[in-house]
């Protein structure tokens, strides 16, 4: 069974109806017309997921739909932005209506949770690939930029680390994948409420997609600083603790990617404010290190010995 | 030879430096920060090109870069919008620096011609695919919407029709491809100056990507009207006339896609204004028919006989 592109677009349009009054014109014209609030900067991020590269080929369509939007919303969270709209470009070898419906179920469920309107996009024939662009708003003076970390800042991270990488490791080993870990891989939670509340309080932020060490490295390069990480202070879920111990766990937490937690820096004076924010938004945050002078990102274990990962995070195109 | 994703992004960032003052933060953070002018609506369009589906696999990288941006800018032209920014998501089987440089040469040359800043994106491993999202501005009261055509409107089209489809036909037939036709397929010209000048003068507009009859059909459905097309009035290039005659040419012009001309409707009273606009922006426009009551799009030859194409335009996923 196959469907025509125009039928597909109609199918998507019917399901993507929005009540946002700032959508002047949504799906169905050459472009969308949108209204950005006065005094706010427009925040734009794009991420693409390719089958077999960014997700296992047996990922359920609803999980893929969720994840494709989640990884993009996570970028808005890491800027301290409020999300508003998205576009979706979906390339598929064929256009199975059941597959598209499943995909939209996951995609639009997450969109509805954050009042994100799907305002346009493209459906094309090709190898399975999903490209999403998200739009949001932030007061530019309060945006969380990578370049804003300062010597002496605390380093914080939300939630727990290593779960998604652990699920991938079980999947690669053909082992039974723990449900809680798989849920974290398939349905990452963009930390939007946390990011918005941190805008104007925290300094630098980044979402953990390539792995904590790699992502913290991006912050350090952009800010011209170094970092010291306490690898045994990294927050771990019960599921991760149950399945992985010692250095294997440290490695998943420090170098595994795909968690989509927010890593941020803030001055010591903001500790109470950050604890209050975490309580208010209901997301745990953990202090995991300190920004230091220099250019190096180093990690130390509980005994104060320097710790080295086997690799520094997920890199596409790596030799 | 292969390059690392982060090196690639640096490579792109270095070449994409912009002087636009409305780019508060460009490539290199979790998201871009952008400033939309007061009183203007944000206009957003996304289009993806997949190897072997939307372009011949032997397309030169610079041509692909140009075209990936051009087809998106064409959507802004058809809204009457001024372009401002774009994001680029590039999936490649490997990351040949020479290929990427060629791609960027074409992409950034067209971007520079229209002062479009590349503000973000994504490079990933996967089958060759290019997804671009473009952003522009328009006064929402003057935007050219598909739903705005009215009974009695003239139907106009810019430039010439059928050239891109003719080049594809020669390519498919393994014939020698005429240079002028190939240029039209590989390097379409988004009609941005025309679209902006028509905002507030024309009524409905669409860019001709799926084929004139199909695209005019979209306008008619959105507007609740029909259309009568004079198929022998469709503007043809010298190259098309030299290579194709009779019904073959009519078919390329009426049903071939990929020309990225602007088809628009306007009241009779606007004919002089439109002629002046066309002269000012240096793009020919031709009256090719009339919007009528009803729901049908029909075409007539010079003798007044109804003319039927063999197919109604390019449709992905067609059975």
UniProtKB/TrEMBL annotation, chains A, B:
An MF annotation (GO) of this entry: thiamine-phosphate kinase activity
Binding site for Mg(2+) 3: 30, 75, 207
NCBIfam families: thiL
Keywords: ATP-binding, Kinase, Magnesium, Metal-binding, Nucleotide-binding, Thiamine biosynthesis, Transferase
Described function: Catalyzes the ATP-dependent phosphorylation of thiamine-monophosphate (TMP) to form thiamine-pyrophosphate (TPP), the active form of vitamin B1.
Known EC number: 2.7.4.16
Ligand binding (Mg(2+) 2): 47, 75
Positions of Mg(2+) 1 binding: 46-47, 122
Annotated binding of Mg(2+) 4, by residue: 30, 75
Note: Reaction mechanism of ThiL seems to utilize a direct, inline transfer of the gamma-phosphate of ATP to TMP rather than a phosphorylated enzyme intermediate.
Organism ancestry: Bacteria, Pseudomonadati, Pseudomonadota, Gammaproteobacteria, Lysobacterales
Top EC group: transferase
InterPro entries: PurM-like_C_dom, PurM-like_C_sf, PurM-like_N, PurM-like_N_sf, ThiL-like
PurM-like C-terminal domain sequence ranges: 150-300
Gene name as annotated: thiL
Matching Pfam families: AIRS, AIRS_C
Gene3D superfamilies: PurM-like C-terminal domain, PurM-like, N-terminal domain
Protein name listed in UniProt: Thiamine-monophosphate kinase
UniProt binding sites for Mg(2+) 5: 210
Organism per entry: Noviluteimonas lactosilytica
Pathway(s): Cofactor biosynthesis; thiamine diphosphate biosynthesis; thiamine diphosphate from thiamine phosphate: step 1/1
Every PurM-like N-terminal domain range: 28-138
Superkingdom of this protein's organism: Bacteria
Reaction equations catalysed: thiamine phosphate + ATP = thiamine diphosphate + ADP
Residues reported in the UniProt entry to bind substrate: 54, 258, 314
Signal peptide region: none
Residues annotated for ATP binding in this entry: 121-122, 146, 209
